[in-house]
Amino acid sequence: MARDVVLKVENVWKYFGSVIALKDINLEVYRGELLVLLGPSGSGKSTLLRIIAGLEKPTKGHVYMDGEDITDLPPYRRDTSMVFQSLALFPNMTVYDNVAYGLKIRKIPKDEIDRRVDEILELVKIKELKDRKVTKLSGGQRQRVAIARSLVLHPKVLLLDEPLGALDLKLRKELHVELKRLHEEIGNTWIFVTHDQEEALTLADRIGIMNNGMLEQVGDKWDLYEKPATRFVAEFIGETNLITGKVKEIYEKYIVISWKNINIIAPRVSGVDRGSEVAVSIRPENISIGSKPITQREGTNIYKGEIVDEIFKGSYVTYYVRLKNGEVIRATVLSKDAEYDVEDQIYIYWDYDKGVTITD
Ligand code: ADP
Ligand code: MG
User: pTM for the complete prediction?
Assistant: First the structure.
């Protein structure tokens, strides 16, 4: 089923002098979704959000909302509202005045302002703080005021730029639960920017991965995890073993890659020839460990190795296994099955289709 697109970014580029902050961004945002833009610092996330909000003009390209070209509209004529990392609250004003501010400058009648402010403060659970100065609030409470101040405008698209960045981990986790509930109750579209993959996986329906001014991949978070399109995405979401080598042989369903004197069997994908350079991403949880070689089936990777390190992570253990070519592969097993020790000689194995072949 085709999904309902509320916002579309088309071929957007942004230069700051000689710095290219965005390179040909194409993005469709669906009505009612919570899309997370995830990427390292400097990858262009804020610039993209600011272009959507109208705070920045693209050097090239267009932004559409519900089919209308809004590229040249000023921020106040767009149906968006932004929550900044700095929050940008008015420090000498009360919670009520901060939240009501945007409605006042839009000349909304006083009784409607009161009703809407009450409604939103109730939703973000700070109604009892209504008459308090924002300087007298905790970090988490200020955060709620900033979000209420944007939500009270009923924006079609809410933009949040690392809004929880300044808070400690415990508070961030509480607010993740709150934000998900708010998003579900309000039902509008949110674009949430973060550099934290755990935050992205917790909050998102879909995730867009940004790197170096490019949007590398957009999709359902499970698809990104299971089918990363690029090496960057494979390494940025979750943990993985990234193996690079040259294609030696090509069969119907799989290819054989030469990786520093070891042959790796990986799924065949289109566009690879003998001699092509490819990468294989294999997640540590998809690798099994045994003390004996299993009977080799067709398409199973099986290698002898030595455990050189183990890291206990509570419910599971990660083993670092050195293979005969000197490379180290990580394999995780549930703690209850973690029966090996450092210096043990073991075998690791995985079926070829547990790996993902990447050609970027
Ligand atoms: P992120 O939000 O992912 O950390 P930004 O969008 O802030 O990334 O920045 C992307 C790139 O654009 C960086 O190299 C940054 O230094 C540059 N940049 C952002 N804003 C400006 C500006 N106003 N002037 C010059 N360079 C900028
Ligand atoms: Mg930023």
Answer: 0.90
